[in-house]
Amino acid sequence: MSALTANMGSLLQAKFGNIQAYTAGGTIWRGGLVVLNLVDGLAYAATDTVDDGDTTRLLVIGFAQEAAVSGDIIRVRQDGKLERVWQGGATGKKPGRIACVYDDATVQAASAGKIVVGRITEVSSTKVFVDLEDRPVRIATGSYD
Known about the structure:
Blueprint: H1 3-6, H2 12-16, E1 19-23, E2 33-37, E3 43-45, E4 58-64, E5 73-77, E6 81-87, E7 98-103, E8 106-109, E9 116-123, E10 127-131
Parallel strand pairs: 6-8
Antiparallel strand pairs: 1-5, 2-3, 2-4, 4-5, 6-10, 7-8, 7-9, 9-10
């Protein structure tokens, strides 16, 4: 058993929520937002992409239960509310609005082309709570989306 798999108890999923295992494609820190690259199937630390175009498809899958490096198996919790630092001004920083990835510890207001994290439930001066279970997969870009 590696140190990584020894970090958490074997009954953690049954005790504390929906946890799934993924293979890490890069360095991921414990507690950081994790995205799944739908092209290569690997998990990565969440990061904002300027334009994901047609080559990179990323989907937030939760937050890391332990640290990992490329090739490690990492457990990701997919449910619950997560406190994150807010990037940007007050626009979009309201309960009920959608938060998107800025980086693995920070979220920002929703806009086209951004990776959705979840719905904001609480706000403070510098942080927000985001509900990972209450989110659309993507932001609608038209009236038929």
